[in-house]
Design brief:
- The structure is a single chain.
- The two termini are about 30 Å apart.
- It is built from seven helices and seven strands.
- Helices cover about 35% and strands about 25% of the residues.
- It has helices spanning about 15-25, 35-50, 85-95, 95-110, 135-145, 165-170, 185-190, and strands at about 5-10, 60-65, 65-75, 115-125, 155-160, 175-180, 195-200.
- Helix 1 (about 15-25) packs across helix 2 and helix 4 (about 95-110) crosses helix 7 (about 185-190).
């Protein structure tokens, strides 16, 4: 195996990172199942990277210069706005599905606590899982947190059925401090329970 490197996301990484988001998260959003992969990727690119500030929250893991993973980190009071301007795509999705997707995204949105570095997203390419890339990205997050005087804790959410991810987080020092159940998230996303996990640094 080659060398895993982590660097800030660049504009030319948007399509690859959007694909990682699609594979790891977007496919789980039931209101958007009617979209083709191409349509979903257009929606992700147009929505997730509509705010210029968004790019600064992402870092990518590369293996032999190929993007194979990503992590999105936020601190207290970090902001971004999601504005989607592709009106044809919005009409294609349909108002009802769009409203349901918006409700689901709002229900999953997390306000970052003061003193926390929050792992909003972490995703690994399907063909490169089990190679230590996730651990490297989380080590990167921990080191970033340690370099900030105002950060004392790394935190994240993990869904109940993502057993492998939860086991990885526990192995490197995260602990679940509470579980959350949300009828909206369950109804729209098929997600029954979400754990909030923290690691002190």
């Amino acid at each position: 195996m080659g060398i895993i490197s982590i660097r800030p996301m660049k504009k030319e990484d948007i399509s690859l990172v959007s694909h990682l988001i699609f594979i790891s998260f977007w496919q789980k959003m039931l209101p958007l199942h009617a979209l083709t992969e191409e349509e979903a990727l257009r929606l992700i690119e147009g929505l997730m990277f509509s705010d210029p500030r968004s790019m600064g929250y992402y870092s990518v893991a590369t293996l032999d210069d190929k993007v194979v993973g990503m992590i999105k980190l936020k601190e207290f009071e970090d902001k971004e706005d999601f504005i989607f301007n592709d009106h044809k795509m919005l009409l294609k999705i349909g108002v009802v599905k769009l409203i349901k997707a918006g409700i689901l995204l709002s229900a999953l949105d997390t306000k970052v606590q003061k003193g926390h570095l929050y792992v909003e997203m972490i995703a690994i390419d399907e063909g490169h899982r089990g190679q230590g890339i996730g651990s490297k990205l989380l080590e990167f997050a921990t080191n970033r947190g340690k370099s900030r005087d105002n950060i004392r804790t790394i935190s994240l959410h993990v869904i109940e059925k993502n057993v492998k991810a939860k086991a990885l987080y526990e192995r490197i020092g995260f602990r679940a401090i509470r579980s959350q159940w949300n009828s909206v998230v369950k109804g729209l996303g098929g997600i029954r329970k979400v754990y909030f996990m923290v690691k002190d640094i």
